[in-house]
Specification:
globular, binds 1,3-dihydroxyacetonephosphate, alpha/beta, 43% helix, 8 strands, TIM Barrel
Length: 252
Amino acid sequence: MSHRKNIVAGNWKMNKDYEEGRTLAREVVAKLQPSDTIVVLGAPFIHLKGVSHIISEVNNLCLAAQNCHQEEDGAYTGEISTTMLRSVGCDYVILGHSERRDYFEESNQLINAKVKKTLAAGMLPIFCCGEQLPVREAGDHEKLVAQQVKEGLFDLSAEDFSKVVIAYEPVWAIGTGVTASPEQAQEMHAFIRSLVAEHYGEDLANATSILYGGSVKPSNAKELFSQKDVDGGLVGGASLNASDFLAIVAAM
Ligand code: 13P
């Protein structure tokens, strides 16, 4: 019924030195089984070119950066542009991760600018949203996620929006070993899809891939991915080990 893509993306965050990153990418290439699932490796900036070479022969294996700058180029010491990312073979850019929102004070407006820059450079944004624990405890999680999604994405044209992947990552489940229950994930994913349907229509909503992130492991991936509105995962810790990551891909 749905024609949306299944995607399992690893977010290596700030882990692995250059050689370790290349080793991990080689292990993934060696053991990845052919399937329709799109598998994405989200590597640190300096790994991107090396990983790009390693994965280039594998059709459904893609490369993501974990951030970008919102300007085209210029005097922004220490920053990385979307043009640079595209030039080393990036397909996706992870944007609005809660760690970027929390530690680097990225606002919905800034993330929106990065989404547009990423699209303009011909790459696909993996747009992250999700609430902190106190927000969920107060019952305001849908309200907060709706604001993130609306301010981050909803001024895009339908054509641009159709290229966006959304990742719901409840902050209380990231790196904590506590996973959202399949029911909690499904409920939020269905809610996000309803927001998209309201704004862009049912067809686009049904075509939007919505990934779950937060302590996804080989042991819980299948149950999470079997939910109707969960189209894959954004995996942190477990993506640092090729066997665990590939077991999660296989669960898709
Ligand atoms: P963990 O899988 O380590 O909880 O991290 C999730 C995440 O933040 C992926 O972007």
